Amino acid sequence: MARRRRLVAEINVVPYIDVMLVLLIIFMVTAPLSMQEILVNLPDADSQPAEANEDESLVLVVLADGSYQINIGESDRVVTSEQLRDLVSRVLSENPSIRVYVQGDEAVSYGKVIEAMSALESAGASSVGLMTEPRS
Hints:
- The chain is an alpha/beta fold and 136 residues long.
- Helices cover 33% and strands 18% of the residues.
- Strands 3-2-1-4-5 form a five-stranded mixed beta sheet, covered by helices on one side.
């Protein structure tokens, strides 16, 4: 008499575990890349300096002590962060094509410049340029 062999009804889960570990590694690598960023349009190093028309630009100067000075056309005003948002949103609602620039003092902390750019973004500035001095 020949014995019948019983069928094994088990699922081999080892390949599924391998796939799961590979997906876990992919998600761990790509998660930091999807963090929110503030977009800044920086000019190329070889490009020519932009010719800014004083009447068609809004320049936010971050002074060395961390205070803000806003230059619209020919007028200069020292403003707080709240006044900055209100003033910029008013100017952008009247003239949406106005160019917005940020000029930061060399001694000011990086956080104050980012805070200023965030305030400009919340006021409705879709594109912000950074101003620098040409190298001599």
